[in-house]
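User: tokens in, sequence out, please.
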């Protein structure tokens, strides 16, 4: 295989990894925003409006794409997993800190490979397991090296399980269906699932701050981030996806620092370890690929 052909083959995977990094940034930028917004409006009304914004933005693009067989069912199942995850996470944020919420949410990095091993009987590679372990230590340090476990933490753990299921579902379904259709329907399912209960949990009395938060998260963290995630999982497996999305709490920490929430020494070390864990997990595939190319050249006459 020529150097140009190898580069062309690697390019889609590299772009998909970058898409997940951007999605992680958008997701990470929402923790502080949502924490403040749910002080002004109930979590279910907020989610209903947030995901409605994202869905409305994507539907004009989605309807221009040709439908695939079974896409409504696929979108409904993925949307249900997101709905359960966000309800648990947003309600849990009323009883725990945003840093603890980020920490527990990303226990999904352990849950995803467990689900994959059970469903597909394919355990992750040793380098991926090592990267996960390093990143988990970093996540613990990033969020203060302590964790009380109460109502908010229990709700957020349920959220982590739901998000892990969502990542595994996307790994199976996203290659079969159009990105815009699948993403728009997911967001619509979440919005519809929160809309009616939202009437009975405080109603839709939004302050200006809550509206700004709903529009921002609807555009950035719903339409853009979920769209990038769905597209990227056509090319990136679920365990690697979960690992790259661990950049979300790093970005959340950076955003928190900008608004005055300082990380401290352990937080900085934690962020570095998360990045190191991702590099460890990525290193072995790169080494194997380079070794394969070397052997190819060595055996050619």
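Assistant: Sequence out:
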């Amino acid at each position: 295989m020529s150097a140009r052909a190898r580069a062309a083959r690697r390019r889609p995977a590299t772009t998909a990894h970058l898409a997940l990094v951007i999605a992680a940034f958008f997701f990470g930028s929402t923790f502080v925003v949502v924490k403040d917004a749910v002080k002004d409006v109930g979590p279910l009304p907020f989610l209903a409006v947030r995901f409605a914004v994202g869905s409305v933005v994507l539907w004009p693009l989605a309807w221009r794409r040709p439908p695939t067989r079974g896409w409504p069912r696929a979108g409904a199942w993925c949307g249900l997993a997101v709905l359960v995850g966000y309800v648990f996470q947003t309600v849990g944020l009323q009883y725990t800190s945003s840093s603890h919420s980020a920490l527990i949410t990303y226990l999904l990095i352990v849950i995803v490979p467990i689900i994959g091993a059970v469903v597909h009987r394919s355990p992750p590679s040793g380098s991926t397991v090592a990267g996960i372990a390093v990143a988990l230590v970093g996540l613990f340090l990033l969020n203060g090296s302590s964790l009380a476990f109460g109502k908010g933490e229990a709700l957020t753990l349920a959220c982590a399980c739901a998000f892990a299921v969502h990542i595994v579902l996307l790994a199976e379904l996203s290659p079969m269906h159009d990105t815009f259709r699948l993403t728009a329907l997911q967001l619509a399912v979440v919005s519809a699932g929160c809309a009616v209960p939202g009437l009975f949990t405080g109603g839709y009395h939004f302050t200006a701050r809550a509206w700004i938060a709903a529009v921002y998260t609807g555009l950035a963290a719903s339409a853009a981030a979920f769209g990038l995630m769905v597209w990227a999982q056509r090319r990136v497996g679920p365990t690697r996806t979960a690992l790259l999305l661990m950049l979300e709490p790093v970005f959340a920490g950076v955003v928190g620092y900008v608004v005055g929430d300082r990380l401290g020494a352990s937080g900085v070390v934690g962020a570095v370890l998360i990045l190191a864990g991702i590099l460890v997990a990525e290193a072995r595939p790169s080494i194997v690929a380079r070794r394969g190319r070397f052997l190819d050249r060595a055996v050619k006459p």
